[in-house]
Amino acid sequence: MEQDDDTIAAVATPFGEGAVAVVRVSGSAASSLLAEIFSSAASTTRDLEPRRQYLGKVVDPSSGDVVDEALVTFFPGPASYTGDDLVEIACHGGVHVTRRVLEAVLAAGARPAGPGEFTQRAFLNGKMDLTQAEAVMDLIRSRSDLALVSAQAQLSGGLGRGMEAMRQDLLGVLAHLEAYIDFPEEGIDPQTGVSMVARMAAARDEIARLLGTAERGRILRDGVATVICGAPNVGKSSLLNALSGRDRAIVSELAGTTRDTIEEAIHVGGFALRLIDTAGMRESEDVIEREGISRTRRALGEADLIIEVVDASRAPDDQERVAIDVPAAARILVLNKVDLGEDPAWARAGDVRISCTAETGIHKLAGLVEKVIGAGRADFGRDPIAINTRHQDCLRRACEALEVAIKGLEEEAFTELVAIDIRAALDTIGEVVGKADTEDVLGEIFANFCIGK
């Protein structure tokens, strides 16, 4: 994919009022464009020392009016984020003044940057591979300490280096096979054949290990889907509010108040939890409530953790229990309303007892949630690399191709066919880091970025 020579510009900080906003400009004309809109008493604009901030005034190139006083930093390519000449203008953070500064830059000849275009240029200029580019977005979107560690590990190139080492080893295997194809009279030494199979098997096993981190990657990026369910009026919305620390859901004595799923994010033990409050499960003739119950069932089917809430002050036979058939999800049974007294039938039931009204047992529940979601996930801290869905698809195809190639070499099949399978594995491994990518795939990845990054 070839990049154009346009000089691009965008606001790199979030929209809204703040102390400072940053307008970023990148391209071959960045420095000459800056000369048209910025004046500084410290130095002529064309002689700015790299990576040093200069205080000056941003002016409208069409009228000459002063727009703002700002700090400007020049990063000459290729030693910049994008690999091209890059200018950052730190202006005052008002909505209007930031827009006026950007308009001045655009009036001087830049064009608006698209989503992720700065990082896309960094990729095209060889400043990072595709896994690192994706890690930039993971870093921005990280919602927990563990997600942040994983994104940093991928941004440092850990996954990319592993993929490149695997590619180089498989290229060596392919070179041996192609030498035999060109000179069949030489034959493949039995020991060399065994060595090639072992090298392909090692690559296959490493791919299988990485594929095993896909679920971890999903949890790190999306959070632990935690569904709060139960019969109407057992305190599900009150529990959501108690765990999140704010009045996120409407609480009422009327059964059926919650008609839709309500989601809130919290952090427990380094994990991000997506708390999902659901409609109470019961038979209902109300069309809207029935739709809410249907959404509850869908949420339960996608849950990583299910917190079932019951009213401890009432006997089990007096309230409907949720029929849950989600084998993969962990479950916690919460006995709520213990401040109203506990029915003796619950004596040997329940994982934790709480009262949302009296605010008791909430910390104990949070500790239990941390213990449950941490169980079996000790590897989260040891190996921060966790692949995403795109990586998973590429590596799955690579693993399948290697399996066929190994089988073919062991059964002494046509070497040309084995070589084709190894090339297929190489191509799909290359897709992970962007060495064999199509323009459509790149466009889809960078379209998910924010403008200015």
Polypeptide structure, described:
The chain is 44% helix and 17% strand. It has 453 residues and is an alpha/beta fold. The radius of gyration is 29 Å and the shape is flat. Helix 6 runs antiparallel to helix 7 (190-211) and helix 7 packs antiparallel against helix 13 (389-410). The chain is built from 15 helices and 13 strands. A hairpin with a 6-residue loop joins strand 1 and strand 2 (18-26). It has three domains: 8-128, Gyrase A, domain 2, CATH 3.30.1360.120; 132-213 and 386-434, Four Helix Bundle (Hemerythrin (Met), subunit A) (Up-down Bundle); 220-379, P-loop containing nucleotide triphosphate hydrolases (Rossmann fold, 3-Layer(aba) Sandwich). The model is unreliable at 249-259 (pLDDT under 50).
How many domain modules?
A: 3
Order of strands in the sheet with the most strands? 3-4-5-6-2-1-7
CATH fold description of the largest domain: Rossmann fold
* Mean pLDDT across all amino acids: 83
Oligomer: single chain
- As a whole number of angstroms, the C-alpha radius of gyration is 29 Å
Compute the number of strand runs.
Answer: 13
Query: What would you give as the CATH superfamily of the largest domain?
Result: P-loop containing nucleotide triphosphate hydrolases
| Range of helix content | 40-55%
Main beta sheet: 7 strands, mixed
- Summing up helix and strand content along with how strands pair, one would put the structural category as alpha/beta
CATH class wording of the largest domain:
Alpha Beta
Q: Give the distance, in angstroms, between the N- and C-terminal Cα atoms.
A: 19 Å
- CATH architecture title of the largest domain: 3-Layer(aba) Sandwich
The dominant shape is flat
Question: What are the segments in which pLDDT stays under 50 over at least 5 consecutive residues?
Answer: 249-259
Count of helical stretches: 15
String of helices and strands:
EEHEEEEHEHHHHHHEHEEHEEEHHHHH
